[in-house]
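Intended use. Records such as the Outer membrane protein with beta-barrel domain entry shown here are meant for training and evaluating sequence-to-structure methods. They are not intended to support clinical decisions.
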Amino acid sequence: MMKKRIGGYLWPIVALCLISANTAHAQHTPADTTEDSKMDFSPTLGKKDYDDRGEEIRYPRVFGGLTFTRIDWGFSRLIDDGSFNLSPDNQYLDYKKASNFGFDIAQIGLRFNDQFKMYLSTGFEWNYLRLKNDIIFDQDGPTLSYSESDINYKKNILTSTYLRVPLSFEFRTRKNKHGERAKIAFGAMTGILLKGTQRLKSEELGKQKYRDNYHLASFQYGLFARVGFGAMGVFTKYYLNDMFENTPTAANVNNFTFGLTLGF
């Protein structure tokens, strides 16, 4: 009976000791050598660019591994030869709404000091073009071409999927009293086309999906910038390459995106 009582009291005592030890360890951690773990929004597997276990940080510090961060969601605008208005030859690309979504899944970089780091990451990115016109793009054509349909589509979406590889240079301020920082990042990005898809929805035929590259740029490149505070921010991207290949009428049609980013 005595053993049972001792065993019953033992777990609360052990838990209290562990909590006390952890509190004491946190109190002895230098405030300016660790990053507040509450700011680590994104799950990361690998070496971080800070130490949330109370160890002293030494620079330069190499970091990298798997991650799920820099989640972008925003709107897109097509730029036709420097104008947001599409030329008469490209009116078939007129759209109700265009959007952009992407995130990073791996990264490797170098933090030079508490304020500056650079890193190379990779992830996926989708561009959605919700078309106004009832058209169906031709598959395997020599150029981007289409045929008009008699069906009134509720949805007509051209989607491109890219493997993105951005190179980022990031600056951040010192932490405020709440442990948060302002950040700014900019850099260059590249991407490799994985697939193109046209999704259609109508009352007559229901949902339809066609896969083809649709002469989407097989390799895209551009510039980007992010500004944020804590884990939230805003982003903008400008793709320098033409959106479509081997299509003279769609030459000089570029993509510009802007929106919110999470895990920055």
